[in-house]
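Give me structure tokens for this 440-residue protein.
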Amino acid sequence: MDLERLYKLYKSHPVVTTDSRRTPRGSMFFALKGETFDGNQYAAQALESGCAVAVVDDPRRVADSRYFLVEDVLTTLQQLAHYHREQMPGKMIIQITGTNGKTTTKELVSAVLGQIAPVQWTQGNLNNHIGVPLTLLTLKDDDGFGVIETGANHPGEIAQLADIVDPDMGLITNVGRAHLEGFGSFEGVKRTKGELYQYIRDHRKIGIFLNASDENLVEMAADMPAVRYGLTGAENVEVWGEVIECNPFVKFRYRQEHIGWQTVQTHLIGAYNVHNLLAAVAVGVQFGVPFSLISQALADYVPTNNRSEYRDTGRNHLVIDAYNANPTSMAAALDNFRQIRAEHKMMILGDMRELGGDSEREHQRIVDMARESGAEDVWLVGENFAKALSEHFQADGPQFRTFADVETVKQELQAAPVEGRTILIKGSNGTRLFQLPDLL
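Here you go.
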């Protein structure tokens, strides 16, 4: 493949699409293949709809000079994205990963850096082997920063994505018990997330942003150049902070040595978000963003992605964290909900996926936490929670109900609407609990 020739085409047509239904005029269509589809079949349609170039790997589809034939479209997309990134050595690229909080941290970091320069960052959940190159290909000449979120379900994936991104600095939000089926164990999670640190080491990059209050991360980052942040009391940190209150929104304060406390009222739900907020502060400090602009960016950020979101529907007060769930994030959400001062509390919890042999134990642990949560009603959605719910729970605890799936919950809410409650909605994305807020 002639990568330089393809790059010249990209520079002439710098909008990339992989969806033949979304074909901006003059864009490039990459004919990706999946388990149930072959993008090569839609290349002609994409060109007819407005694309200027179709990158394909099926020679039978090449009909004229608008087709660019390669050996493998996905590999080519990744190579093109990496090549584009390498043409922009002046851009500061920060790669973010972690078990929990990486999307919120990515958005907070981007908001802070956006105070001083244009930023391109990962949109939505485009944090995989397809989404990451698509994000890199949005980088423009006048951008000062790129903030790239990367996720993983199996060992080696973070290393592969780091090879594409070539980050100048890295940030791991935390390591927790998620995707255990793919990683094999918690140690497997640490090794995979730690692939980002290893890339920074091996390529002698600038360094990392390190949560010094997280013992696992401190151990993993031994002897690495780091901008350290943490909770008040953490040792050797550039930025430290603490939660003032969380009812329901997080109000926190932060400071540096010789600089007084800065207090910020946020729109985020959950005291656990203080680590994500402090990460964004640390990034801002590293790149010279004034404290006043850091605080303004954090105060103005409003989550709208079913993560740490609060919504007053007029009938109920909702705490929505329905994009994903694992034992670590679920426990943090329940602990935070327990601390919210409200009458008539209720929880709707969906199954946690990809836990392998740990699934029964971890679901049972969350059920036990739910019993002590102070909620009047707990609705459990999915077969894993149904298995974990013992028939012998305390008579004075919450009223538990189980539902097979989100559709049966929707039917119940339509038949018997719920009102006057403060409700936590939390579950793995596959349980689709994000469909419930409109009914509450």
